[in-house]
Structures
1.
Amino acid sequence: MSNQKIQFLEPTPDLEKYRDVWVFIEQVNGEIVKYSYEGIAAARKIADKVSMKVGAIVIGYKIDEGELRELIYRGADYVIYSDHELLKDYNPLSYTPVLVEIVNKYKPWAFIFMADELGRDLAPRVAYRLRTGLATDNIDFEVEDFFHGLLKEKFSNILAQVRPDFATRIAKIYTPRHRPQIASLRPGYFKPLKEDKSRSGEIIKYEPKIPSYHSKIKVLSLEKVVDKGEKLSEADFIISLGLGILRDAEGNPGRPLEVVELANKIIDLVERKLGVKAALGASRALIHADVSELRDIITPDLQIGQTGRTVSPKVYVAVGISGAIQHKVGMMRSNNIVAINIDEKAPIFEIANYGIIEDLYTALPKLYDILKRKLEGEE
Ligand SMILES: Cc1cc2nc3c(=O)[nH]c(=O)nc-3n(C[C@H](O)[C@H](O)[C@H](O)COP(=O)(O)OP(=O)(O)OC[C@H]3O[C@@H](n4cnc5c(N)ncnc54)[C@H](O)[C@@H]3O)c2cc1C
């Protein structure tokens, strides 16, 4: 055993002066990124529990007042907006110091970022500069009392950040002695609040001081990445394929391309006949299996789960997916889960509303035929 003592970071002075729950609002070309509203819904949940306000923090250039006002209609109590030509596009060397300045001036109790590319880059920079903690990729938040075993001290009413742990557990992380309590939230876990135009709130303009070193990074252009999985976030019907598609029930090599084509036919049928958005997803194991005939078809942007996308459709059909916790956390908020699996003990059946214990090579064609008959009236 080492005799090394654990060194704790000095606590933030004047902890009690920190109030309100903030959300960092992302914008691209002056348009608010819509899942920022999910962050506001999460902040609202926390703020109401501790009788604090929700602040929406926006950095950009010439953002329309209507866009800012919308943040209040969606649940923020006030907006702090920092407007400058040099803040038009995301640059960590300008956004970080400006956010740190704003935090030091207003002292928020908690600060939520969305756990996307931008949030994953910006939140740790801000947390480090402020000498406070950060828990990433949360899926929920609570307000709780927390007993710190090492310090032998109880902290009342602090933020519990809820996130999947490395393998099979859900962990709670606390930042008891530092402020703000910084967190990133995975998109897809909170529903945006309904627009309420009767809400009012102040839009506070913050004059930023941008350090000259910002010019070490220059944004030359912004290009939208082709994301085949984009449809998944909005889809009401999802068919998700797992490693099970590689073999039939006897363990013989399967015909995975045929399964994908059949899944796409069902998706097309549902979209045409029911007029709902439908999409194809996949488990990480299938994507990583790197099956040559599925290359360019089953791509990483279709991954659902802890390290992929979070979805909450009306119907989620899991085909040949075992239901590992890392997959479940990405789809367990679906309204109806249909699972097709040969193994009746597969964990996916613990959360499935409808279970089909059968070889997917027979069950999926049957599902297609039934849907076709029902929706197209064919015999
Ligand atoms: C840090 C970390 C992050 C991760 N993130 C993710 C993530 O984001 N998303 C994700 O999906 N996974 C993730 N994983 C991997 C996860 O742990 C599982 O390994 C993965 O989800 C398993 O995928 P699967 O269900 O397709 O494969 P398997 O677990 O191999 O399951 C295949 C299933 O198919 C069934 N089956 C086989 N043949 C047939 C047949 N012919 N007909 C019907 N059923 C059949 C089997 O009974 C089995 O239940 C992560 C793991 C770690 C450690």
2.
Amino acid sequence: MRRIMVLGAGYAGLHAVKQLLALQPNAEIVLVNKDVYHYDTARLHEVAVGRTDPSEISFNLRETIDPRVGLIVDEVMRIDHDIRAVELRNNGLVFYDYLINALGGAPSTYEVPGATGNVLPLITLNDAMIAHSHIERVLTDYRISRNPYDLRIAVCGDGFSAVAFIAALVHQLPDLAKKFGIPADKFEVHCFASNPKPLYRFDPKLTEWILEDLQNSNVIFHGSSRVTKVEPGTVFAGNQSFHANTIVWAAGIRGSGVVPISGYAQKFNRVIVRDDLSVVEADGGWPREFVIGDVSAVPNPETGRVYPASAQLAIQQADCAVSNLVSLLNGGRTYRFVFKPYGTILPLGPHSGVAQLEDSKGNYTRLKGAKVRLLINRMNKYFRDSIV
Ligand SMILES: Cc1cc2nc3c(=O)[nH]c(=O)nc-3n(C[C@H](O)[C@H](O)[C@H](O)COP(=O)(O)OP(=O)(O)OC[C@H]3O[C@@H](n4cnc5c(N)ncnc54)[C@H](O)[C@@H]3O)c2cc1C
């Protein structure tokens, strides 16, 4: 029996497993993930601000995964393509016939000095829980210290995850103020954007609406303020140094650290794949591996730029990779990956959001406010239904 190994139990890996069970049930399927649980990455900001309990955005893989799948809870250290084996931290070498690499990403600190270790990233469930306890700890400190920097939160980054975090935070501040007995107007939220303003390439009208809404909630945006250095409690950006005892890093992702030590052609640790999502084998032969989700770099054929990482992209890539693998196993050929984006949906706290939806003819519809919340709930349900 051929062994198909899937690395990573995020949206990409779990959707791939689901599709493999449906299309190639007679293969031996092995799933490796470093934690015993899956978490919904697209909802991490809710946990970070304390709005949502971690259990609501995660589930135990042992209790959920189909019993036909061999689950190994362990950390992938390296992939040895020559002998077709994955080296695991505790289990050593595990061999495969075919591989689907869906190891996801890691925070990109763009080599900013001091960033690693002095900021709170938001990439894993553990990160989100650490950010939440940190925020609660500094607010507890404030009650004794009266240090205004305990009430300052600096967010480094100007993309979707930075703005989703800021919006979730400002909606949570009244509750935090009440819980810690701190007047709500004493909090300060600052966003450091390397572009002239956040969401620089998003729809200008929706961006204007979002920024106005957040500025009305006393969020201060520092445009064209690329972060150049971080020290404990201090962000250096533009020509200023700025003190804040909570510094959140939401400035982008790079691929898994396993990539550079496993001999892939890569850019920022994201694997450069062929147009069918496979990677070139060392001997130039039959493809044995597909790379999908945040760990892959797939260019948009229209712009030449790599598609931004998203759950919708990861799920569609999993569909394509599994169809191609099943086709190969049955003596067929592989097909080019074509991404069909349904648009961009951005949550702005628990009751609002914005959406830019695209129809099949490429026409855009803009939506904003409370009605987008229904779409966000549907989107989150679609993500969950794709993986369980
Ligand atoms: C705060 C935030 C909000 C977002 N909001 C949205 C949104 O609204 N819509 C949207 O489409 N996208 C959103 N995204 C992006 C989206 O979540 C990612 O693109 C998506 O999670 C990618 O899926 P993935 O399976 O490739 O990676 P992941 O979901 O990151 O999964 C990777 C898995 O691999 C495991 N793993 C990693 N390294 C190892 C290792 N060495 N060994 C073993 N296991 C390992 C991890 O534990 C994890 O289970 C958001 C991202 C963030 C951070």
